[in-house]
Every structure is written in structure tokens, then in C-alpha cells.
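Researcher: Structure prediction, please.
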Amino acid sequence: MVVQQQPMSGFRILDMTWWGVGPYCTFLCALMGAECLKIESATRGPEFMRRQARMHELNVNKLGVTLNLKHPKTLDIVKQLVAVSDAVVENYSPGVLARLGLGYSELRKCNPSIVLASLSAHGATGPESNGKGLAAIFGAMGGASFITGYEDGPPVELRLSADLAAGTAFCFALLSALYYAKTRGQGLYIDGASREVMSATIGEVLMDAEVNHRDQRRLGNDRPGMAPHNVYRCAGEDRWVSIAVGRQDEWEALCEATDKREWRTDPRFVDQTSRWLYKEELDVLLSEWARRQDAATAVETLQRKGVPATECCNARDLLGDAHLWERGLFVHTQDEDDRAYVMTGGPWRFSQTPWNVARRPPKMGEHNEHVFVDLLGIDRPSFEELVRQKALA
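Model: Predicted structure follows.
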């Protein structure tokens, strides 16, 4: 197979993001070959962010640049970068970029085809636009947390998953905008609201409320109309198997695999509706069976008979999964101090242009000279003066 240029080769993105949603959006672009200039500043306390293990991973393939955006000389430098870039991605609070003199109207003067993606918790407009928010807030205000959890328990916070879901959605929007800019020669402004991403994931719940005037309850592992549909503790320490039976043939296969043929004639479990009505009793019986089983052996037996079942994998299980390694989800790389670690890559495969980890995460300002001197053409004395004045810090 001849590997061609990656899908985003030739695109340059100014990455002004700083946590979760934004860095994941640009991380996906960097995996696909985009040149991402990661702009940081010592004035924003980046050491805390860099101590977070996940942040190492989200900076791979990026070039490290430092800019003190509060310094008067950096405004012109950013505009020069915008003039030679395709997109700017930021997730400051709404209005911050405009107050710095870098609002979309100003950026368009530098580059009419520039795409600006502003990613925030609540969006750039509306009465709550200035509200603060991290992942737990996205899920709560978006409605997803309310329906997550057990029926007799409180709503459950959605943290990392909310960040990654929003980052993926905004990456899709960014790619669409870049396509538009490339074909039309005209840029776009993307106003992204993470809470709205979470609301978009619960369309069925919103429709239920609109049509039936009710709020769906928290279901735990339950799924209306399906039983068994739960996780069951197996032998060993914290080992579980997930079983989800919908069709009658799957139920009969479960009875065969567990050697519980008498369940077939039990009037409580005669059909799908009855099984769901007596799901608590069925869960008790399956739990008694599962407690005596090795999880891996049980799953192999269940699947061989045609039962939808799998182990509930922990992180060590995943890192030891030969299937995932063969698929290339995990790759060996280094952090900015060249210490080896394993990271997850893109959850997709392109046949001719696979993503790859070509560069470790950059140290702060590691590529300042390359970007400002080689790319922008700032002469060395001027560059050194900017460093001395802490404009590039």
C-alpha cells in the first residue's frame, strides 16, 4: 500500500485552546496531518495543564509556540500568523478574543478565508453566554446527566466523555467550514456550545417530553422491552459480564449456554414482554449463575451460542487487548521529556491515508524560532528583542 498525503496535509491551524474540548478537536486534526501551531503562554499557568497526563497525548504532532497575548507587540504577530493559516481554534470565555483585538471581523481583514472556531460552554450569544462551564456542567445543562444513573439515585456527572463528544462534534464542524472556505474562498465563524452538543445526544428524550409531556426517568442498565439487559458480577476481583438479550432466539441461546433449560418453560420468561416485566427476578437468577463463572470463559461460551455478551473491560484489559493493538488504536510514543508511554490515537482508519503520531508533544515554545523566523520571516535581531521583552513568553 502506498501511503499518500494525509487528509488534512497542507492545512495550518492556530491552536489557541487550553483544556479538554478544544485540544481534543485540534488533536484529531493533527492526527490527520494538519499543521497545528499550539499557542501557549506562561501567563496562563500552563504547568498545571501540562501535569495532566491526558494533555501530553492531546499535543502530539503539534508545534509549540509561546505568545504573551497581553504584550502590545503580539497583536500584530498573531495577525501575521492568521494571514498564513487556514483556521483559528480557541476556547477562551466568549468575548476574550475580541477584547484582545482578535475578533472575527479583525481576523478577516488579515485573511478573508480564515475559519474561526470559538468553542465555549454556552455559546457566544444568549443570556447565559458568559456562564462558566467544564464537562460536568455540559452534561448537566445539556440534559444528559439527568437521565444518567439509577432510578433510585441522583443524576450522574458526565466528565471526560462530555469533553470528547463536544471536541469531536466541533472537529466535524471545523472540517466542514474548511471545505467551504477552500471551495468558496470565504471564511466562516463557528460558534460552538458544548452544552448544545450534549442536548443533541438526547433527541429521543426531548421528543418524549414534547409529545407525551413527561421526563424520562433514569434507567441504570435497564432498557425498556429488553431483559436480561444488565451487568453481572463474575468470580474474581471486580470482574463483570454484560448481557443484552432482545430476540427470542437469543434468549433460548442464553438458556442453553447457562445450562438453565428450565428457564424456557418458566411462565415469567416465556416471551420478551414477560421477561421485561420480571426482569428483577431474572437478574437475581443470572447473578447467581455469573458469580460462579470466570468472566472471559463465560463470555466465550455465551458468544459461541449466539448471546450478545462481553466482559466489562478495565484499562488494563484494554491495554492488553491484542485486537486493539493489531487495529492500531494504541501507539508507543514519548512525552515532551522523551519519556515513553502508550497513547490512544484516532478511532477510525483511512485506507490510503492513515493517521500517525509523527511528533512527540512539544515543550513550551520549542518551535518559536521556526515559526517566527522561518515561517513569518521576522529577522533574528527583532526575534531576540521580542524574546527579551517577554512578548514570546
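Model: The two ends are 44 Å apart (CA to CA).
Researcher: Thanks, that helps.
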